[in-house]
Amino acid sequence: MKKGLLLGAGFSYDLGMPTAYELTEVFLGLFDKRNTARLVAGLGNFQPYSADRPINKAAIAESFDLLLGYKDKKGGNYEELLAKIQDLAGQPGKPQTDKDSHHFVFGVFYEIIHTILSVYQAASYEILYAKNLEWFSKLSNLLSDNETWVFSLNHDLFFEFLSIDLKIPVTYGDMERIDFPVSNIEMHNVVPLSYAQRKDYKIGSEGFFKGRLGVNLVKLHGSLTELEYKDGSMICNPLLTVRSSFDLMETFRKVERMGYYVQNRRVPSGRDRAVTNSKGELDIICKSMLTGGKKYSTTVNEKAGEEKLKVFDDVLRQIDQLTIIGYGFGDRHVNFRLSNAMARYDNLTIQIVDPARNKAPEFLQPFDYDGKIKLAMCGAAHWMDYCKSNSWDSKQIEALKENSKYRTEIKKSVQKTLQGIYKLG
């Protein structure tokens, strides 16, 4: 049987990463009426595009008013909020200065969300990963005898950590390597990255496993460590040929530190990051994380920049079973591909693993017959064991319940770190 996996935020829940609601709570907790007034005044002085293309404080204030209103209504999905900011920028009749201002604020929020996730990655790895590695040790039960395609909607590195520590071969499909210095004041300290040319990124690429055990990992929404270079023509990732998750975590920390310094001051960066190339020169590399309401286009025709979705379509055409773990079915570009595949391919079945879901999402209900859709109300680690043994591990269940207190510890650690970074109080 040819298997594939689609992983949502729930896959990393027992490893310490936040749910969308928790991340939203942490993000919104950074803002109140007093500090947003200061931020509006400060951001209004920026010239992110050029002196000839100014932004304005009124439009910036409108974006922050939207944020405070969302917080007052106890909104629980940061991506919904970011989509509303994008909608402001897209309103017909808005002057360019307003559109630029909303885009600028979206970039500021993007950078904060990226930072929150990066801090969560570090804290959860340190506090919870080692405690739970044992309970995820049956990951191979989810894989095919030959290659397995894994599509992750998460930005974290936990699937990679597990694969490396459990000795499961894993690849991003990269074929080439490029090195960057950490910075122009640390030229000796190198960050090794693998990369694939975007034009060559397809299901048949030589960098992917074929006919043997191994995971072809596709980060559909980018990653904390995935970077786009040379105007997006190169998709760069950390090397996965390291000895342990610890080594990959060290690469993560180096990627976080990549930058360029002028007079001992790091050049400010957002999604477009100022970094140092091998010649010691200022260069630009782009964060790949996709968030908000416009991750991908709304049509299924093949387009530049959407190569990963094309691979997803091609894999759905080939596999017999797709196991979906911890996905809330909130991404239209994913959902209509799932619906289309179920309608077109009679052999395709879907196994949904989610402790909070007792029925198929509405768009899949027309295919809920003859066992084509199956549900398992449990977490990722539970399912790895149960899918082969057909019995629940009581010791595992009790151990994973203990994660609640560690998740609280992680959240407090993250909030403390963020207060130190942003000083928004």
What would you note in describing this structure?
- It is built from twelve helices and 15 strands.
- The chain is α/β, with parallel strands linked by helices.
- Among the domains are: 137-293, no CATH class; 307-391.
- It has a seven-stranded parallel β-sheet with strand order 3-6-2-1-13-14-15, sandwiched between helices.
- Strand 4 and strand 5 form a beta hairpin.
- The termini are far apart.
- This is SIR2-like domain-containing protein.
Task: Quickly list its features.
425 residues, alpha/beta, seven-stranded parallel β-sheet, 12 helices, single chain
Note the run of SSEs as H and E.
Answer: EHHHHHEHEEEEEEHEEEEHEHEEHHH
Distance linking N and C termini:
55 Å
User: How would you characterize the largest beta sheet?
Assistant: 7 strands, parallel
Cα gyration radius (Å): 22 Å
Helical residue percent band? 25-40%
Structure annotation, total helices: 12
- Name the structural class: alpha/beta
Poorly predicted runs are: none
Shape: globular
Number of strands: 15
Beta-strand content bin: 15-25%
Report mean pLDDT, rounded to a whole number.
95
Q: Largest sheet, order of strands side by side?
A: 3-6-2-1-13-14-15
Organism: Paraburkholderia acidiphila
Protein name: SIR2-like domain-containing protein
Brief digest:
With 425 residues, the chain is α/β, with parallel strands linked by helices. It has 12 helices and 15 strands.
Write the layout of secondary structure elements.
Elements: E1 3-7, H1 20-28, H2 33-43, H3 57-72, H4 78-90, H5 96-132, E2 147-152, H6 158-165, E3 170-171, E4 176-181, E5 190-197, E6 214-219, E7 227-229, E8 234-238, H7 245-257, E9 261-262, E10 265-266, E11 272-276, E12 282-287, H8 307-316, E13 321-325, H9 332-344, E14 349-353, E15 373-376, H10 380-389, H11 394-401, H12 403-422
Parallel strand pairs: 1-2, 1-13, 2-6, 3-6, 13-14, 14-15
Antiparallel strand pairs: 4-5, 5-8, 7-8, 7-12, 9-10, 11-12
Helix pairs in contact: 2-3, 3-4, 3-5, 4-5, 5-12, 6-7, 8-9
